Amino acid sequence: MDKGVTWTSSSTTVATIVASTGVATGVAVGDTDITATVGTVSGKTRLSVKAGYQQIAAGGAHAVALKADGTLWAWGENRFGQLGDGSLVDRLTPVLIGTAKNWTQVAAGEAHTLAIRSDGTLWAWGSNLNGQLGDGTQTDRATPVKIGTATNWVAVAAGARHSLGIQKDGTLWAWGRNFEGQLGDGKDADLLVPTKIGTDKDWILAVAGAYHTVARKTSGRIFVWGSNEFGQLGLDNKGANVRTPTPMDTTTWLAMAAGERHTLALRSDGTLFSWGDNGSGQLGTPGGSRIFAAPVDDSMDWVAIAAGNRHSLAVKKDGSLWAWGDNVLGQLGDGTTASQRATPTRIGDATDWLRIRAGAEASYSIRTDGTLWSWGRNHKGQLGLGDLITRRAPERVA
Question: Which of 290, 306, 307, 322 suits a disulfide with 313, CB 3.0-4.6 Å?
């Protein structure tokens, strides 16, 4: 740094700067002028401080992210309006969805999106062929549509064409495609509006695979329903559909992730289990498909999991990122062209990975500094990197 240079920020509420070194620190979202002065000569540049990412939802070929300032951003395929920007145009970089700044949660299905606002209202947009938006129609929506009048939604999940929600009182609701029993109402007819499943009031978490559902109660027990064609329900009835919530076992679980045809779950002691289809190594263990839960390895330090179509992601307690399964389109992020990995493979040497999500053949992660990274298939711009080029290693989304 040249001697005699003095640095100043026009708005210290946006960013502060060390006068002698020019090192700037963001304080709040906004813009400020950074001025460098030497004697009577000065020059300035505009500094923009942007909100970090808090959540990421990955769909079939689109992604939606929630920033710390409560705004929602989307990119990728938009054929059915799943981005919510009012158009049907694919976006190669993140675009702001509406003007609301009170979004608190988001979920993405194959071609539809769900989100909750801070007032507890539920919103949906995108493909609605099977009623997966829940607005009582089968009409696609290109902008967020408020679903019903309830103001007590606390969680949402999206499968290929079905949706799930949990309300504040612990009740579980489902709507959309039901051919495989994935809604859990005991029938096979699609539901066009959110419908309460059973009478229990102790549901706390739900995840949706392509055509199956996994949900956890406050007791830690997992219940499963929907397609079990590849053993993804973890029940001894492979090939059969299960149409009502059925307990998988008596284990106490902490978190779950559902892929196209496989399931992952974290036990409360930090061990990671998998079951279902293993045709691409997505279970993380050698061998074929498996109908019962089995540990991926002997580690007891797993803290986060995600499941794509045929690949899996996980983060360990030390912040390291791991991946396994199909890698034909670079979705593991290990930088190679290996077609698949049958066991967990560490991705890079960073130790600040925090949240992960897996789309159909793309992967996403938020690091502890709030930056968003993506890799894998990019044929619809779902990586948000401004082009249609596949990435085989994590790259930061602008």
Answer: 306
CA-based Rg of the chain, rounded to a whole angstrom?
22
* Residues forming a β-bridge with 313: 306, 323
> What are 258-298's pLDDT values in tens digits?
999 999 999 999 999 999 999 999 999 999 999 999 999 99
Torsion sign (Cα): 199, 202, 204, 209: negative
pTM of the shown model: 0.91
For the chain, where do the domains classified as CATH 2.130.10.30 start and end?
53-396
Q: Looking at 97-231, which runs of residues are DSSP E strands?
A: 103-108, 112-117, 122-126, 141-146, 153-158, 162-167, 172-176, 191-196, 203-208, 212-217, 222-226
Nearest by Cα to 357 from 313, 394, 316: 313
* Cβ-contact 221, 232 below 8 angstroms: no
Nearest to 255 by CA among 205, 313, 301: 205
Residues 277 and 80: their CA atoms lie apart, in Å, by: 29
Taking the C-alpha atoms of residue 374 and residue 244, their distance in angstroms, rounded to an integer, is 36
User: CA 41 to CA 57: how far, in whole Å?
Assistant: 48
Yes or no: domain 53-396 corresponds to CATH 2.130.10.30:
yes
Length of the chain, please?
A: 398
